[in-house]
Recover the amino acids of this structure.
């Protein structure tokens, strides 16, 4: 039985979670509940207003990156160099965004006492638990099943079909392992994220670990393209890649 966590593959590839492990879920809700001083609360709202604008720009860039990666995957002529030129640009954008998120958190904490912060964390944990319960519902549906069905339909050669299906299984298994590693990483990092006096350097350590998992996810995708696309015609590959895009970038 597979878990619905496969819906997180796009986030693993691109980042894009507003808190991205360095902020706290439902910060504004916790702030409204826990911060007493109205002036301090107003200062934080102003900081978050700027942060929301930066987040909106980041999401817009990631939406365009998703389109670009889909296009790269659709062609069986895309080279490894083209993939990694794209990835380098994406990493630069993600790193810049992460640094802004770090700075936002540190700035907000100038207006929050440790007691208020602990109250915000308690509120966030309740919200996060509800999200986890909602996202972790299990399903018997194999998210890569339709990719395999397209291969069986489009590719007549039994030898090529066998190799393609093996490549899909390899990609699926690698993503399952990476997503499980991401979950474990998140559990480990919660202590640092929840701590009042955590520093930007602490967050950068977390970022390095998570970004490493993201790089591994991208490497696996490029390897799949390298192994599988030569076994198909341009038309066959487009049919396979279209379905793959729906799985990993829905």
């Amino acid at each position: 039985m597979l878990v619905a966590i496969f819906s997180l593959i796009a986030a693993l590839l691109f980042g894009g979670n507003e808190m991205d492990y360095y902020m706290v879920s439902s910060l504004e809700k916790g702030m409204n509940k826990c911060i007493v001083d109205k002036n301090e609360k107003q200062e934080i709202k102003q900081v978050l207003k700027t942060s929301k604008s930066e987040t909106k720009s980041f999401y817009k860039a990631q939406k365009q990156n998703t389109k670009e990666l889909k296009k790269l995957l659709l062609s069986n002529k895309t080279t490894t160099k083209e993939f990694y030129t794209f990835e380098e640009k994406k990493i630069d954008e993600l790193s810049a965004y992460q640094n802004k998120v770090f700075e936002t958190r540190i700035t907000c904490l100038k207006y929050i006492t440790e007691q208020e912060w602990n109250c915000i964390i308690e509120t966030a944990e309740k919200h996060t638990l509800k999200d986890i319960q909602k996202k972790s519902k299990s399903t018997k549906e194999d998210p890569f099943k339709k990719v395999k069905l397209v291969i069986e339909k489009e590719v007549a050669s039994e030898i090529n079909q066998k190799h393609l299906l093996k490549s899909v299984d390899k990609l699926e298994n690698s993503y399952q392992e990476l997503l499980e590693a991401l979950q474990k990483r998140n559990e480990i990092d919660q202590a640092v994220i929840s701590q009042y006096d955590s520093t930007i350097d602490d967050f950068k350590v977390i970022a390095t670990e998570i970004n490493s998992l993201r790089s591994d996810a991208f490497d696996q995708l490029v390897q799949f393209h390298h192994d599988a696309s030569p076994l198909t015609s341009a038309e066959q590959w487009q049919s396979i890649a279209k379905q793959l895009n729906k799985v990993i970038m829905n």
In short: The longest helix spans residues 38-74. The CA atoms of residues 28 and 45 lie 8 Å apart.
